[in-house]
Amino acid sequence: MENKIFEAGPEKIPTKEEVxxxxxxxxxxxxxxxxxxxxxxLYLLEVKVESEKDGETVQYEYMRxxxxxxxxxxxxxxxxxxxxxxxxxxxxxxxxxxxxxxVWEQVK
Length: 108
Description:
Elements (H helix, E strand, L loop, with lengths): L3 E4 L8 H8 L7 E8 L2 E10 L5 E8 L2 E2 L5 E2 L2 E9 L2 E11 L4 E4 L2
Antiparallel strand pairs: 1-9, 2-3, 3-4, 4-7, 5-6, 7-8, 8-9
């Protein structure tokens, strides 16, 4: 079984809507935290969802491959899921990655 989530053309920068389509595979009822773009388009998007556990939130963080104006950089275009307890990071895992050909795949 293939884990492809979303296909896009090579060198295409995902829009906010396209990133949210991928995030929606993992979470519903997300709240926007932060969105940053440069002259190429969206490079950072953070959304969160309240966990069923008291004081815990789950945040999904998209970052485009490359070096960005906020001094962040990434070697790949991906989405991470981070768990926070009372505002402190607890753990994180990569949930999706965009290949060089522009195909999003779920990470197992």
